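B., you asked whether I could sanity-check this one before it goes into the benchmark set. Here's the sequence:
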Amino acid sequence: MSDEVGVIGGVGPAATVCFLDLVVRHTAAGRDQDHVNMVVLQHAAIPDRTAYILGRSADDPGPVMAADARRLEGLGVQFVVVPCNTAHHFTQEVAAAVRIPVLSIVDETVDEVARRIGTGTVGLLATSGTLAAQVYQHAAAARGLTTVQPDEDDQRTVMRVIYDQVKAGLPADVDALLAVADRLRARGADAVVLGCTELSVVAAAHDLLGDRTLVDSLDVLARRTVVRAGRPLRD
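And here's what the prediction gave me:
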């Protein structure tokens, strides 16, 4: 029997929908009953993670996410996932609120990077909140990886794509985003992480993952969710 998954979603809403689609597509299923059972909270009202981390808001997402985890645990799920990289900053608080595991998008993604490049250098495309919280930097260092991140101008481009385009429901400037990734490679990155799930939405919409140097955190989380839930992955 497979495990039931609890999803703390809405962070952001489009990324959660993309995650659910990826889980379905990555599951080797021949009928409805072969798919992963999920309980999804599309909780878009969770306070902005980046704004809180950067001190621009006093609204703390941690207790809200912890309450969501308890709610999911009460509904009988066996583990929780949060399809948001910036929310990883609050993972310890969420995990402490429940007795069930919380699958880490950051740890799973960095493990995938290490499998692909060993102990090389990884470029980070993420929100300013994720970069400031240093969740990827710490996870990468623990695995012997070096990190490189965009300069100020390129980070503004990344944030524009995330907030002004994807979160606003507008077309993404894919060429500008890929140019930032190219500049990270020019600075030594052997792989580039799409470390924001809004960037995963862009990757899915524009079929960017044919480039094996791009590692999409949401795609990695979806695959790991399928396996953790006890379902086979589609080849």
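One thing to flag: The chain has a mean pLDDT of 96. Otherwise nothing jumped out at me.
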